[in-house]
């Protein structure tokens, strides 16, 4: 059950991340901000890939 709660929490955090991403104003977002967000996504992908293999 604990694992299920963690996954539910992770899904909620990812949804929050996506909501915030949707609200970004491209004209006020720097290249560094975008690079940072891409790094976060790549790290999440790598961690998920490690867990599923």
Explain this structure to me?
It is built from two helices and no strands. The model has no long low-confidence stretch (mean pLDDT 90). The chain starts with a helix and ends with a helix. It has helices at residues 2-22, 31-52. It is flat.
In short:
The protein has 53 residues and is mainly α. 81% of the residues lie in helices and 0% in strands. The model has no long low-confidence stretch (mean pLDDT 90).
Q: Which class of secondary structure composition applies to the elements?
A: mainly alpha
Number of helices: 2
Instruction: Evaluate the radius of gyration.
Output: 14 Å
**Which spans of ≥5 residues are poorly predicted at pLDDT below 50?**
none
Main attributes of the structure:
single chain; 2 helices; mainly alpha; 53 residues
Which helices and strands, and how do they pair?
Elements: H1 2-22, H2 31-52
